[in-house]
Specification:
Four Helix Bundle (Hemerythrin (Met), subunit A), two-stranded antiparallel sheet, Arc Repressor Mutant, subunit A, disordered N terminus, single chain
Length: 231
């Protein structure tokens, strides 16, 4: 038997013997689905031992998956405590939108004064429109989040961008949980789509104070519209 043949036989045996591995990103996606479907309610503990048993994986794999959920805003964890599904009170959501309005309004002012290329924002809007048409709620929320993150990132102000990300990523995860994957709600974004376009036009027109006011007002209208959809 040649050396090459022996090597191939060993490799084949190793492949057959190795059990299928559930990578942490795949496991995180499954946990996220449980959250969005309501099987893991907002504020509930994510018990590592239970989900490790349910998915047939080690607890360390569940722990790594939970860390992904935390980074994406779907879960929170205090020192020495179990992770919990993210949950916001109506008052907390209102406060977040107020701060968003201030931050994103500031971003609009900076972008107007800098004359930055806005094609990334226009691309995000195009993806939102496409997702609304196909009723792809997940893609819609991703494109919407990308628009607002880029609005702040394009300013080049790292402090502004970091604070915006801290607010926006958990908020959009919370929105996804509240909507529960109901694809029919994607069409409810049509009025908001026009407001996103108005934001970009105001920035492109070059009047900093008007652009800031336009964006501030749009964010507060988004808050009102979100409450209507959730109800």
């Amino acid at each position: 038997m040649t050396t090459t043949r022996r090597y191939r036989m060993k490799a084949s045996k190793k492949t057959i013997a190795s059990p299928p591995l559930l990578i942490k990103s795949s496991l995180a996606e499954q946990l996220k689905n449980e959250i969005v479907r309501g099987n893991l309610p907002q504020g509930s503990r994510i018990i590592e031992k239970f989900w490790a048993s349910k998915f047939g994986v080690a607890q360390t794999s569940v722990r790594e998956a939970i860390n992904i959920l935390i980074s994406e805003g779907f879960a929170t964890k205090n020192s020495g405590r179990s992770a919990r599904v993210s949950s916001y009170s109506p008052e907390k959501v209102a406060q977040i939108y107020e701060v968003r309005a201030a931050l994103e309004g500031m971003a609009a002012r900076i972008l107007t004064q800098s004359g930055q290329d806005l094609s990334a924002l226009e691309h995000a809007i195009a993806n939102m429109a496409k997702s609304i048409k196909s009723k792809d709620l997940t893609a819609l929320l991703e494109a919407d989040l990308r628009f607002h993150l880029q609005l702040c990132e394009l300013t080049g102000n790292e402090v502004l961008s970091q604070h915006a990300r801290m607010l926006l990523v958990p908020l959009f995860a919370f929105v996804s949980m509240r909507l529960g994957g109901n694809a029919t709600l994607a069409t409810a974004w049509k009025p908001d789509l026009e407001r996103h376009r108005a934001m970009v036009r105001a920035i492109a027109e070059g009047e900093a104070s008007i652009a800031e006011l336009t964006v501030r007002n749009a964010i507060l209208r988004f808050a009102d519209h979100a409450n209507q959809i959730w109800r």
